[in-house]
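Q&A log
Question type: sequence-to-structure
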Amino acid sequence: MHWILNVSEDFSLSGIINISQWLLLPPYAVGPSAEYLLRVEQLTSGHTVLLKLWQNPAGLVLQASERLNGLETEELSRKARRMLRLDDNLARFLRKAHKTPALHAAVKHGGIFLRGATLFEDFIKALVLASSPEDWGRQRITWLVDRLGAPLPSNPTHHAFPTPQQLLWGKHLLREMLPLNVSECICDAAEIFYTKANQLEGLTRSDLPLMVVDQVVRHLLGLEDYAHSLFMLALGRYDYIPTDSHTCQRLERAWEHPAPITPEAVIEAFSPWKPWGGLAYWLWDWQVEAVPVPWQGELVNGNFAN
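Response status: OK
Response body:
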């Protein structure tokens, strides 16, 4: 069965797919030429279905691999809105970005990053990506999905993203297949999300001050800095400018200065983009233009270094 969601005139599914290549992790898959998006999804009813999304002149088309009841259809619609951030309004940011060469690709594609169907999925992916060597993150997430996620009945080789309870049931597998520190962090997170789901979902409210969200996430979830930055992006806190060591080292490579880049310098560099300083950072094309760097009290333009 299929149905259509209304989207804004500037919505572009292919644009989201193009921007989000590094976030296209299982259970996502992409059709040829980025024309559609696939994922296996386990519903609260217990049904596991294949969801296909594509765009046509009427809007965003959702197609499920089997017939659904009204509650299941509503759940998939809600998850699609979350995954594609259909409620985000970036019009003001994109108008400003239009004047900045390093953000022209963002303007072209719409500036929207793909995220998971649940906050828990976003958290686990941030945790695994940040704690894995660069080429191992995808492999580990694929393993989590394939070994612990609910199988698609029509094709059991495909799986949904595992729920907190499924990860807790698979503790022994996690400890066998992943480094101890990673497996323990995943188990701790699954326990927290299983027992405090409503409290954590409250963090998605856009009216909460950034400082409150930042402190609650750090207190409850205890992510290391880079994973915290990834999770804040998934939360939609575009006002959160990453200042972790990964970010500072990345900017050191982009800016031609011998001394280490400080968190204060990163915040100052992206502060003109408030309240989208974090989004500007994640979308910035360093090969086109280096952002002005606050350096010993003055702004100095850095050059990209391969």
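Response note: The CA atoms of residues 204 and 235 lie 6 Å apart.
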